[in-house]
Amino acid sequence: MKFVENECCELKSILTKDIKKEIIAFANTNGGKIYIGIDDDSNIIGIDNIDNNLQAITGMVNEGIKPSLIEYTQIKIEQYNNLDVIVIEIQSGPNKPYYLADKGLKPSGVYLRHGSSSIQASDEIIRKMIFEHATLRFEEMISKNQNLTFEYLEKKFKANHLSFDENKYKLLNIINEENKYTNLGLLLSDQCSYTIKCAIFNGTNKIEFRDRKEFTGSVLKQVDDIFEYFELFNKTSGKIVGLKRIDTRDYPEYSLREALLNAIIHRSYYFDSSIIVTLYDDKFEILSMGGLIDGITMKEIFKGVSSSRNPNLANIFYRFGYVESFGTGIGRIMDSYAEYAKKPIFDATENTFSITLPNMNYEEVSNNSNNISPSLSQEDIIVNYLKEYNKINRNEAEKLLNVSKTRAYQIIAEMLEKNIIKKEDTGKNTHYMLK
After folding, report:
1. What is the pLDDT of residues 26-49, one digit of tens each?
2. Domains in the chain, ordered, with CATH?
3. What is the 3-state secondary structure (H, E, C) of the chain?
């Protein structure tokens, strides 16, 4: 029989105190077996003093690991090549996280199995395990901060012609039966500690910043503020088809809105990390913490299956009309791109969920430039563009030619010097036309 260390098997030549870390790692992950008496090269060397070693292992499990793993470990002796080997079989425990009793619930005390190694868990992973195996949802737990105010929430109720009094706090689960603010209250409060970080880049990579901003306050305020902010960047481009001008926004308003709402409503708030929003010339990306909920697949989400980590928070957004119905968002994002070649991309890992929306106007500009004969110069491409669209600015020239900001300025300067084009207006309104 060949023994190989992997995600569910650990080999030890002798018994050491570090065995507790391996037991904890298996219990916190998917379970596994530890063989004592087999070295790292899979050589069966056996182990002496069986009774003493068994007693030592039992003591480690009983006294050195919390919560108790007695019910989820089995210690036995097996013989290979007529040599005694101690086998510790560990089940994946239901009361995660398990930890070293003398270290406590911190990275030096909590371990996970990763491949053939046992590694320390991060603070965020420890919090995740605590919340996932608690009887209450995150939003139902008592907030650590009890000094909360709700000016923006009251403003939203008033704007929507809804009454808001002391009874509403308990009705909406902002306050629990003990008259303590819950984590839902924290999220809706003016003191909300979770934020959205946004970065705007020139071009299609993270080389040149155009703008950056962090949104704070109540999650309701963050939603309103970021929608208003993105109105500045979701441009409208026009194209003449026959005798009609067809205007198209970079991103369908619904898809942009739903992607942001999805990140805020369905994220896992036991992670401190901010929601990350990134806008490039060719795409919009949003990354939030928390993968798919256990038991739900992407295929089911596309079919409209709805399951929320934060149902009370989702209900608040529903009351205020941010979402029309539950479980339809992802499907409607796809529907908004039905007429376009490029489609949104959805990606879920164990701890993250991301949505990438392609810029529809960038796709059209790229196709136009690609369809022009490669023999045309960059100046000819701009001239042809001006013949069709009448005017162009620096940013449009940069995207049309797929060049850097500096190179776009250089080409425009050369065309001005040659009297091919002329400059109109100044500042942000600067554009160029055929002379």
Report:
1. 999 999 999 999 998 899 999 999
2. 9-132 (3.30.950.30), 138-188 (no CATH), 196-361 (3.30.565.60), 372-434 (1.10.10.10)
3. CCCCCECCEEEECCCCCCHHHHHHHHHHCCCEEEEECECCCCCECCCCCHHHHHHHHHHHHHHHEECCCHHHEEEEEEEECCEEEEEEEECCCCCCCCEECCCCCCCCCCEEEECCEEEECCHHHHHHHHHHCCCCCHHHCECCCCCCCCHHHHHHHHHCCCCCCHHHHHHCCCECCCCCEEHHHHHHCCCCCCCEEEEEEECCCCCEEEEEEEECCCHHHHHHHHHHHHHCCCCEEEEEECCEEEEEECCCHHHHHHHHHHHHHHCCCCCCCCEEEEECCCEEEEEEECCCCCCCCHHHHHCCCCCCCCHHHHHHHHHCCCCCCCCCHHHHHHHHCCCCCCCCEEEECCCEEEEEEECHHHHHHHHHHHHCCCCCCHHHHHHHHHHHHCEECHHHHHHHHCCCHHHHHHHHHHHHHCCCEEEECCHHHCEEEEC
